[in-house]
Sequence to fold (165 residues):
Amino acid sequence: MWTGALTTLSVFIVLQLLFFALGWLDLGFNENADSSVRAIVSGVLALVAFFLGGAAAGASALWHRANDGMVNGVVAWAVTVIAVLAIALIGGGALLGSVADVATQFVDLRNAGAGVDVAAATENLRETSGWAALGLGLTMLASALGGSIGAKLWPGHGERDSHRR
Fold:
């Protein structure tokens, strides 16, 4: 599970930075940038990273059936989501893309000062949360699929190592 979580975070951050360096992605510092393009690119990069993280979790875990790798992929996904939220809340959201935007928007709404239309901000947050839920669901599926495929990369892994349990 830790293998998958660390792989996912590392791959995602490296892909985000690579796409930023090549000019294909804006990390959110430019106010004139199109946020929908950023969200789509960040979402595709997240799917790739979660698939690879799930594959790493599935391939590295002890298992008896290939579907056990799927469980490891989903658990790695859950650990990664918690880590992404923690990183976003301590200020590293720019490196984590649109997934982290929801957490930081919620904190910003709670700290809203005078002159902020809380109703409009709440509606914006509600819409963003819907997209985030869809993204999280898709990344969970990618991680589960990666875990299943990763487990199949090591046929007989469970029988060979079961005596070590």
In short: The helical segments are 2-21, 35-60, 66-96, 98-110, 118-152, 157-161.
